[in-house]
Amino acid sequence: MNNLSRRKDIKRHIKSLNPSLIGLLETKVKPAKSYRVSKCFPPHWSYCNNYTASSRGRIWVAWDAEVWNGTILSVTLQQITIMLQNNGGLNLMLSVIYGENSETLRSTLWDDITDIHSQINTMLWLLVGDFNVCRYTSEKIRGRKLTARNLKDFNDCIQKCGLSDIKSSGSSWTWHNKQQGRYRIYGKLDRALSNSFLIDKFPQMFIEYKCTSSSDHTPALVHLMHSTSSGPKPFRFFNYWTQCQGYEDVVKSVWNILKAGTPMFKLVSKLKELKSALKIWSKQPGISTKENIIKLSKQLEHIQNELNKDMENESLQSTELALCFELDGWLSKEEDEMRQKSRQSWLQQGDRNTQFFYNAIKQRISMNSIRQLIDKDGSPISSIDQIKVMAPKFYEGLFNQTSYWSIFPKLTVKRILTDEAKQWLCKDISYKEIKDALFQMNPDKAPGPDGFNAYFYQQNWSLIKTDVVLAVKSFFSSEHFRENSAFTKNEKSSRKFEKSLYHVGNEIAVISANGWNVAGALHHAKQAWSGIANASIRAT
């Protein structure tokens, strides 16, 4: 910041990005010349720095006084924390970070963050800046190799304080050493973290890494965005439903209905009807984990109050034990439900990780939200309605191509299949192969587009196996669908879409038998099968 061109660059960024609050790091300006930094801000802005902790004023924070009221809460060598309130009544705690280069010196930063966390309660908290350390070993290219030990203190601090990365866009790397060729090192040192309360308030917030000019770090712009309605939530099958009263009756009542049409159409139709039936059933009293936990907790509280008056009453003691047992069961079901939603399959049940799962769910929703697509002309599309139209069209064009060589390119290989291998690839799929493939799947993996996961198929195999096996066999053995005048227009569209995918599967098998290697054939067959699983459901 002692350089005039650097200060002009800062002014240019402020003018073009039009932020209401900014943080400047590594200014390297002595107190006597601090006016060089303050003149970069618009005249009506307020600002603070950490000259009290650093002789070079490593951190500056400035905000538009017409938008924010700021109260300084903490100033140390590596962070400044400010309480901000805007005219709309929003209260936000902001910590601007500039970590030390030394791993040992950075340890005091983790202590600072932990101390702040212990005081904030339910405040919205945003941490942004240069932490001078990566979170993952994959966030650095070249230079001294990172190890899990190097990153442990940072990740432990994040976990202890209940923080998570907010979604980012733009550059994948926020810093490089300005060297050339094999001497250039890239790293992600700058990031934004938030607590769960901030994600609740701004579920679609993200940090945008802009292009840099004079600095070796990329400028970052944080967007605090409220959620936008994207329509009804998609259906999802929850594993704990299989333990609830009435579940089996719902599944049997739908699955035992006779359907006309191809095996694939029968399966898709039954799944579609079962989805509707389970949606209605799951809203009945006694199914929701939250409602049952609240109800049982109130009943247990009443019984324990009665026991305080009559502590030797065996009937009340027996009722208390029964309620505790039932409540524990519903708490386990809730944990299982939250684990499914969070997709944290690596963490096992048993320690009441509900809050962890809840935070993971909110982070995943924030990370997975789609805010923008790029059309064929390279123009950005950000309207939700336009995104809903554009996304299906892209995949329809991808899966309905007349020539599949753009998806499955020809391969030049030295080794070809033996006659025995060709026969094996072209033979009929057996019941055992289908069942083994299904039961080898992790039951907790993410469900397909229809909302049913592997656990559903595994738990209901005795009832649904005939329809599933016939559908899979028909896919691998036939290119044609039996016409039925009773089918509706949408059902014909579904058959037509499935039919195009049958051609893909058979084309792969024929090409494989004529000279492709086994690994390549199986890889492309797997891609085609994934497309079928997604397409057959979406076409209905």
- The poorly predicted ranges are 344-351, 480-540
CATH architecture of the largest domain: 4-Layer Sandwich
Mean pLDDT: 80
| Count of alpha and pi helical runs | 17
Distance between the termini: 60 Å
CATH homologous superfamily identity of the largest domain: Endonuclease/exonuclease/phosphatase
Give the tally of β-strands: 17
CATH C-level class of the largest domain is Alpha Beta
The secondary structure category is alpha+beta
Please state the CA-atom Rg, rounded to the nearest Å: 30 Å
In the sheet with the most strands, the strands line up as: 4-5-6-7-13-9
Helix % is 40-55%
Beta-strand content: 5-15%
Major sheet details: 6 strands, mixed
Shape: globular
Brief overview, please?
α6 packs antiparallel against α7.
Task: Tell me what you see in this structure.
The structure is a single chain. With 540 residues, the protein is an alpha+beta fold. It folds into 3 domains: 4-223, Deoxyribonuclease I, Chain A (4-Layer Sandwich), CATH 3.60.10; 239-338, no CATH class; 374-538, no CATH class. It has 17 helices and 17 strands. The model is unreliable at 344-351 and 480-540 (pLDDT under 50).
How does the SSE layout of this entry go?
Elements (H helix, E strand, L loop, with lengths): L3 H14 L3 E5 L9 H4 L6 E5 L9 E6 L3 E8 L3 E8 L4 E8 L4 H18 L3 E7 L9 E2 L6 H13 L2 E3 L1 E4 L4 E2 L9 E2 L2 E6 H6 L4 E4 L10 E4 L23 H9 L7 H20 L6 H21 L4 H29 L11 H15 L4 E2 L5 E2 L2 H16 L19 H8 L4 H9 L14 H6 L1 H17 L11 H25 L4 H21 L2
Parallel strand pairs: 6-7, 10-14
Antiparallel strand pairs: 1-3, 2-3, 4-5, 5-6, 7-13, 8-12, 9-13, 11-12, 14-15, 16-17
